[in-house]
Amino acid sequence: MTPEIRQLLRTIPISDPRFNLVASLLIHTQNRYPKFPMSTILDELPPAEICEEPKPERKNKGITQPHVKWEKKQREPVNSKFLNVPPNPLYYFEDGLRKVNPYNFTYNTFCKERWRGRSLLDIFADEFRERPLEYYKAAIAAGTVCVTATDKDSTKNKPPQSGLDTIVKNGDMISHTMHRHEPPVTGDPIGIVFEDENIIAISKPAGVPVHPTGRYNYNTVTEILRHDRGDGFNPMPCNRLDRLTSGLMFIAKRREAADTFMHQLKSRTILKQYLARVIGEFPPEDIICDQPILQISPKLGLNRVKANGKHARTLFRRLRYVPEHNYSIVECHPYTGRTHQLRVHLQFLGYPISNDPIYCNRKVFGINLGKGGEGDDEDIITRLNRMGKEEVATAEQYHQDIVKEHLEKKAEKMTGEFCEVCQTPLYSDPGEHELGIFLHAKKYECQDGAWSYETDPPKWALEDMKEGETL
User: Fold this and answer.
1) CATH 3.10.290 fits 103-180, yes or no
2) What's the pLDDT tens digit per position in 364-374?
3) If 32 and its partner were Cys, which of 36, 159, 199, 232 is the partner (CB 3.0–4.6 Å)?
4) Residue tagged active-site, from 16, 122, 196, 242
């Protein structure tokens, strides 16, 4: 790094638009050259300050300058990954789990439509319930939770506001700086099914989100691949799987490859095959469910069969039935790609996925588990909102024993344990039953036969098999 750039970093305030340019160049350099001494540069940066450059004195006051109309644009905040240094080492493994050391992180998000006109405290208390109300009160008072209002008539942001009664408006940016504790995920590696110069077909472990979301940042498929491959690798997911779902995913290495694959998905020229383990004796004959699906709660991610929903179509075929434990292994062929399509259709048919924490939860859907669309939407939303969608389903008796044992262990671990830095109550490690559900993306193939990729079936699909029995 030249002395000129070092001096520039020391003198430019963060409010100066040039800072974004230099920061972007440095981020690009770090991604391209991972051994670049980025931490040294960060240590040399001055404290963030917000100030305005003095206006230059106008010369030739008697001369009329031509009027130039400037287009005013809102300035985006600097990438928070540049201002928040990741932990070192980034990952460590313990008890079969991949873990991330806690680190400081700033969330920046613009006001969502449903937040308009609400107070800062009300938004955090209602939408971000992983922390107690007292934490958010203290954070707002300390300024680590704040709102930056954007003046539409200026390219500069106004000073941040932080008050319990601060009202959030359209265009405002909400920031939350915190000591971040990411939940651990399975320590199982991301399997490679196929790879060439354009695309990677991977086997995603259950419980690992595809991309940063919610409490997950580095413990995600894209960030794990970025870390493992280095050299500026930029993974581009072509298809999405729920966090709790395992199986086949496609990661493009180039934008052109991603566009080609996603075009095939949209044109429905790719045939998909999933495996699911469901409650009860699924009928031996093939069943097609073409019930439309509607998202009835965006905040909770809850979907149900509704007449005014989007068209959805799935073929189900029973592979085996295990009468000793009253469950079936079912092959699923979705012809459309609606959110939670397989989980919702199986619930509607009366055979929900055995350990689905949402759609196989009697505390939410009642004794019949929502079969045939049974249940009032508002009542279901209220119950799900109250208990949290991550509560473990206890539909199978053998599963209840595992859940009970884990919850007892969890209660012991929670007693008196707090983070020494931020005083946040520490969660115990998730049990195996919390890391995924019995749903696996097994096979994808092109309709014209040009390519076909397949993963091995998961362990839960092979349990209780008799001698000579196959899927």
Assistant:
1) yes
2) 999 999 999 99
3) 232
4) 242
